[in-house]
Amino acid sequence: MATSTSPPEAAGPKHAAAGPPGGRRTGRDGDRPRQKWRNLLHRLDLGAAPYTFIAPFFVIFAAFSFYPLLYTSWISLHRVELATLHSREWLGFANYVRLWQDEQFWNALLNTFTIGVISTVPQLLMALGLAHLLNYHLKGSAFFRVAALTPYATSVGAAALVFTMIFERDFGMINWFLSLFGVDTIDWEANKWPAQIAISCIVIWRWTGYNALLYLAAMQAIPKDRYEAAAIDGASRWQQFRQVTIPGIKTTIVFTIVLSTIGATQLFGEPLIFGQGPNGITGGAENQYQTLGLLLYEEGWRNYQMGRAATVAWAMFLLLILVFVLQRVFARISSRQER
Asked: Where is the composition biased (Low complexity) (predicted)?
């Protein structure tokens, strides 16, 4: 049997493919580590860039909101005086028990609730009507929109001072106007309900235009074909407002209610300036219009009890959480009923 032997292959190409001695890689093999590094940087860029952009907010929030919240909760468990903040005496929940039994706290809570209702309900109703008027094509609508926002841009101090002069007992414009109809002079600052009505007028004046612009923005987002369909069905403007506009801006209405509730809970500047002096801190001689914000200020910066002030602050915080939970419960109940 004849056998054939093939000649040995040339070593040149094989050695060229293997690369030069010493293990150095060239060509595509040398670019693979660099390409892997580029892929890794690309993945990090896609994954970490969003967190890098939002990191400043969380850093500022942690420094100026979250840390003070935790520190306030820790201070509320101690007896701490303003003059000696470094000296603390552990009390546990004694400050909260004392606050629960304090009649002044419940009076401030009731005043906060009543002023909130007196100011919020008319404010949102007026804002809703104003936004409905601005939603139509009126001459000079841009001017009226800017004018509606002007009270919000006004300083709370300036607004409170002006309204304090308007509601002044002896020379105020309100008492002069009421005297034309035979109404006796009203001491707006000394009596409970007149004082709360006067403070509510300040809040209504400042925030009605702001809420009106929120409602206006929500109304302009409602599709026009809904109004056209309602008009074809014979609905009047009032029926269109009830059946088209109100359901279309329902979420905005809930948002403004929650926002107004938070603002009412934190009410401070208006009653403080309205009191014109020491009575402003205590909310009147008999605490007739003292809010939770004024009670916090009195405990911390007049009585020098920072532990009690921190307890009031946490009571306000828990109250806002309760309002938020109730709002979510009502929202779920209404959504189920609509289904």
From this structure: 7-19
